[in-house]
Write a structure and sequence with these properties.
The chain is mainly β. The chain is 15% helix and 44% strand. The radius of gyration is 16 Å and the shape is globular. 7% of the residues are buried.
Length: 147
């Protein structure tokens, strides 16, 4: 089953902190993200800041998943995919890097962990599949895949 976070939620979350007269309702945000996490509908982190001061920060999902363990993500967790020669290398903060093998056009896998990543360069996003879940990531910084 594929989960998509509606773009409207992401855009709204990005601009909440820009309204100088509007205060942040942290309990409502916590409630929203708790429901998304409990229903396994989202994975990632959100930070709202004003004038360089962080007003709200929350992470949901996992930075590491195996058959024996699930390590929760924190607001410091970063997920990176880098190109090294003709190969892609994936890594989450605090975890070992792993090679992603090309298995099709814009499709890469790390079979030992059951990871499959499908890029959509026309929309600047990718879908991450692992442990029965599918998570859509919309790239914010320098997300580009060139063959």
């Amino acid at each position: 089953m594929k989960y998509r976070i509606p773009a409207a939620i992401l855009v709204t979350m990005m601009f909440i902190g820009t309204a100088l007269t509007q205060s942040i309702n942290k309990p409502k945000l916590d409630s929203l993200f708790s429901v998304l996490a409990q229903k396994n509908k989202a994975m990632g982190s959100v930070t709202i800041s004003r004038n360089g001061i962080i007003l709200y920060s929350r992470a949901i999902g996992y930075s590491y998943i195996s058959e024996k363990e699930k390590k929760p993500a924190t607001v410091e967790t970063k997920y990176t995919i880098n190109k090294k020669g003709s190969m892609l290398i994936g890594q989450a903060t605090g975890q070992s890097s792993f090679p992603l093998e090309a298995t099709g056009k814009d499709k890469f896998e790390f079979e030992q962990a059951g990871i499959m990543i499908q890029f959509d360069s026309t929309k600047n996003e990718f879908t991450f599949h692992q442990a029965g879940g599918s998570y859509l990531f919309i790239c914010v910084e320098c997300c580009r895949y060139d063959q």
